[in-house]
Amino acid sequence: MKKSNLPYLITIFIGILLAGFLVLYPLNLYVMKPGHAYNVSEYVNVQNGDQDDEGSFSLMTVSMSKATPLTYIYAKFKDYYELLYMDQVRQEEEDDEEYNVRQLKLMTDSQFNALYVAFSRAHLDYQVTFKGVYVLNIITGGAADGLLKAGDEIVEIDGERIESQQMLAEGIEKKQAAGQKEIELVVNRDGKLLTKMIKLKEIPGSDGRVGLGIVFTESKSIKTDPKVNIHTESIGGPSAGLMFTLEVLNQLLDEDLTKGYTIAGTGEMLEDGTVGRIGGIEKKVVAADKAGMEIFFAPDDEVTEEVRKKYPDYISNYEAAVKTAKEIGTTMKIVPVKTVDDAIDYLDKLQPKS
């Protein structure tokens, strides 16, 4: 009698299901790991700028992806891989679309600040224009729920052009004081102007405050002479700000700021020139070393005694970068920077590479 193949086929089917589960099933976690180094000159172009430098400035990234059972297990045993819960990545009430919008806005802001700081340091002309109030996310059950969306730019309130964030808040307060609950907004959504009538109501989870129920920030643009084009469609977040600033300066000035070295770094660029703390710096140091970088600029953010007492393991970006550099045995020089001027001063004193 011929033996049945059914048990064998069942085993194969179960194996396929198990493999699919391990590889594809999404967990409520993210895996963060070292990313890559990207030559900033490939993303930044200053009109008629100096681009014949021998060295380079590179921005660093981390790679972030949804965890599956397989990548979860792998991350548990792999150095410089980190598992993050959803609330460690997203803000409260933030969905996938709103998270992506926030990351892209942070990148846009880093570009604005880079241009603002670079042109200020180079003593060249620029013009700043306030564009409106940028919506980052909508609070569920709030007045704007279903009417506004992340990425909208509020440009008018009750027929008046908005010229500051404060103007929006004051407009809402005036409505309340007058006993009126409906407000007219004009928003720029994907290049189209839309009029939205919104009835103000209590913000969910607040202490009784009435408003739109949105998280927002200001939106500004900067016009420079010479013109600068920055293309970073595939990169989000604010951490490339410092390296954008240095690359713009390097193309604006005739001298080679890099002195022939391959220079990486990270840090948010603030309007006053301060270099802000970022996440995942250990992964960026690993990625920079792997890419053969010779110098790495790390934010030297201040950690107060109060914070150290409350969180004994909390260290500055610079301290974390130095610690990682020792662990991986890199010869890459880790340089602390509190401001963009610290980075410029270091480069001014650096001997050209022979």
TrEMBL record:
The keyword DNA damage does not apply. SUPFAM superfamilies: PDZ domain-like, Ribosomal protein S5 domain 2-like. The chain crosses the membrane at residues 6-27. Its EC number is 3.4.21.53. The active site is at S239, K284. One of its GO terms (molecular function) is serine-type endopeptidase activity. SMART domains: PDZ (SM00228). Gene3D superfamilies: 2.30.42.10, 3.30.230.10. Coiled coil: none annotated. Residues 103-164 form the PDZ domain. GO terms for biological process: protein catabolic process; proteolysis. It catalyses: Hydrolysis of proteins in presence of ATP. Signal peptide: none annotated. Keywords: Hydrolase, Membrane, Protease, Serine protease, Transmembrane, Transmembrane helix. Residues 233-350 form the Lon proteolytic domain. PROSITE patterns: LON_PROTEOLYTIC, PDZ. Belongs to the peptidase S16 family. PANTHER family: ATP DEPENDENT LON PROTEASE FAMILY MEMBER (PTHR10046). This is endopeptidase La. It comes from Lysinibacillus odysseyi 34hs-1 = NBRC 100172.
